[in-house]
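To: structure subgroup
Subject: Chain for Friday's discussion

All,

I'm putting the inputs and outputs inline so they're searchable in the archive.
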Amino acid sequence: MFTQYTQDGRVKARIDERGNRTEYRYNALGHLTETIYDDTPDTLTDSPRMTVTYDNLGRVTETTCLLKIEAHAFIACHLVFKVQG
């Protein structure tokens, strides 16, 4: 596996032994906001991805994803978190 890093040391991308690339994006505070998976013959959608949204205190408020799990099945999710306190 090959890993690329941003200038501030965060993981920018990983490339596995089969050449599949996964990219990671962050917000200004350094929180992971998006994971983008490589298009492969097995993926259902173009660039399957997972996104994460944070509130002003850095708490996760929402996660969305569209990921293929096998040849004829996929996961689509949209989770909303209610932060208290």
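Points worth raising on Friday:
Residues 3 and 48 are 19 Å apart (CA to CA).
Residues 2-80 form one domain.

D.
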